[in-house]
Structure formats: C-alpha cells, structure tokens
Amino acid sequence: MSKGDLIYDNQGRPYVPWKLIGDFMVDAFKAVGVPQEDAHICAEVLMASDRQGIESHGCNRFKPIYIDRINAGIQKPVTEYEVLKETPTTLVVDAHDGMGMVASHKAMKTIIEKAKAYGMGMAAIRNSTHYGIAGYWATMAVQEGLIGITGTNARPSIAPTFGVENMLGTNPLTVAFPTDEDFPFCIDCATSITQRGKIEYYARNGKDTPSGLVIGRNGEAMTDSDEILVALTKGEAALTPLGGIGEATGGYKGYGYATVVEILSAALQSGSYLKALSGIAEDGSKEPYHLGHFFIVIDPEAFMGLEEFKKTTGDILRKLRASEKAPGQERIFTAGEKEHLIWLERKDKGVPVGESVQKELVEIRDKYNLDYVFPFEE
User: Fold this and answer.
1) What are phi and psi of 314, to 5 degrees?
2) CA-to-CA distance for 79 and 73, rounded, in angstroms?
C-alpha cells in the first residue's frame, strides 16, 4: 500500500530505499571510527539480511549490536586482522575484537582462493564479534561456484537437554549449495528453536514469544519477550534446542549440533567457549565477547564438476517441491526459496522499517550530525 510517495508493507511499515539505508549505515559506521572500506562490508552484510526478509539480523541490529557495542568499548571499530597460522588449505585468524564481518570477509576471500587451487579450504577465527547473518558467508562461496559451510558460537543462550542453564550459543550451522536455478540452496538457522535476535524482534514490536521456545530456571516456559531478554542476560532463562524440551521430540539433536558448532568454532583456534562468551566480566562490567567462527569452502570441480553438481542439486530440489502436498497446503518450499521470493518483492522498494528502528536511525543521525532525511519523516 502507499500514502503519498511512501510505500508500506503489509504490516504498515514504510520502505526506505536500499541506497539510502546503505549510504546512511556506511556514514554512521564511519562516524564511530570504522574505516570506509570496512564500513561498506558491514552495511552490505546487514542489508543482505533484510533483502531476504531475515529482519532479526538486519537494520534491527544496526544500533544495538554494532554502534552501541563500539561506543561501549567492547568492540573495536578498526579490525586488526592477524594471521596466526596458514597452510595451503587452512587459515587461523585473530580478529582482536574488531568487526566480525570484516574479519570474516577477509578470511572467506582467502579460503575461496585456496578451494579453487586445492579443492577445499577452511578457516577459523578467534577473538571476533558478531559476524551478521551466517548465510552471507556461505553464499559468498556459492557466488564463486563453490559450496559454503559456516558456523559461529555466541553468548550462552541454549540449555542442554535435561538442563535449564544457558550454556551454548544459538550456534547456527549453515550450508549453501550452487544450483542450476535462479537461487542457491541455503539453510541458515540456529540450533535452538528460535534465536535471541527473534526475541528482540518480538520485544521491539510488543509481541509475546511463543510458548516452548524459552525455559526458565524453574523449568517452566516463558513468553514475555522483554522479561525473557533480561532473564537471558542474567542467566535466569535459556532457549530450548531444536526439538524442544527433553528427548521425546528430539531436543537432544539440536543440543548435539549446537555442541558441534561450539567445538568447531572454539577448539580449532584455541578460543573462548560457553560461559566465557557472556560478554560480562567477573566484576559485572561489559567486556568483549571473543567469539569464534569457522568457514569451509569446497570446489565441486574437484569432484565431478560444477555443472553436474548444480544439475543434480537442482533436480533434487525440484523433486522435493513437486512431491505430494499435505491437504490444504498450496506449495512446498526448499531452503533459500522464500528468501529469494522476498528479495524479488523488495528489490525495487527497499527495507521496511518499523517505528522502533525509525527512532534509532534518527537518533544516530542526530547524534553524529549526518545529513540525511528519511522518507518516513516527510
């Protein structure tokens, strides 16, 4: 729908053009000390999330996860990228608490070249910060005709099966494949039923969190989104792993995969893990998160060739979508398809911005005297 020159989405949120929001985020990042080239990388990763409708990792997080953390002194705007160890197919990097997206971009560029030369490449990063949407890094490989796999640990949020204490991060295990279709296959999701960013999204929009996604120290489900965010920070609540509470519905599976990501993210680079990623020092003050990430890139040409891989992958996905549908269901999707459809719908409109994010954008603009006027202000 539209009102004057403004276009709104079905939730009544006005769209902000891609170029405007991108230029603004670049200038805001620069205002807090991020170098221009790095600022472009960070803004691009955030917009990639919004382009696919994954709003828990886009503009919604621009201020609280990046700008605020830089201002709090727990994230460095200038990224000191130190190579600790390197072989023809592997790379270990220390990001020194700089911009996780910048360190990840440099590491991915390196192992993409390694994979092209040797068939495979893998990197591990230590002492990093939030690296944005995990799918960005996996699809960065796909754009080069390669397979991309990545994961990251995070501040403790998930309780192990039969436990109530938040121990593991939401720890996404993300995989992307090139296909012969207009979009890649990309499965990018947390190893919990939901993630903290989604609860932040619920809180911003005044919505309760669905029951069963969060467990309190008393073993009962919690639904008040604002209360959950406070309780998660204090360690008084935990997210439930994929599969839910206990073993009956397979919660041990999500717990197990979260542990796999934790180990690959920390043990390969001798980094921090579990409670050490809380961001809270012993005296209760804020401290850097010291996150770890891992990245794997595989070249299909080292096997039976890229075109054969893409065709077989495409055939598998098409057969899945063409299989018998449940009564009342119109369509079967494969991973990455819905995100592609959202991009087609948004590409000429921009990113929809709700009232809370509008206020944050205006606050940042005014604080740093940036010369911008947003469509929702006119």
Assistant:
1) -60, -40
2) 13
Regions in the chain scoring below 70 on pLDDT: 1-5
* pLDDT tens figures, 204-231: 889 999 988 999 999 888 999 999 999 9
Q: At what angle do helices 36-51 and 18-31 cross, to 10 degrees?
A: 140
Q: Cα angle at 270 between 267 and 273, to 5 degrees?
A: 65
Which residues, other chains included, contact 185 with Cβ-Cβ below 8 Å and sequence gap of 6+?
A: 175, 176, 177, 179, 313, 317, 334, 335, 336
Q: What is the pTM of this model?
A: 0.93
What distance in Å separates the CA atoms of residue 362 and residue 377, rounded to the nearest whole number? 9
What is the rounded CA–CA span in Å between residue 295 and residue 275?
23
Q: How would you classify the pairing of strands 185-187 and 173-177?
A: antiparallel
Residue 56's closest CA among 264, 175, 207, 185? 207
Strand order in the sheet with 120-128: 82-86, 90-94, 120-128, 291-298, 147-152, 173-177, 185-187
Q: How far apart are CA 211 and CA 215, in angstroms?
A: 9
**Region of residue 73 (left: phi > 0; alpha: psi -120 to 50; beta: else):** left
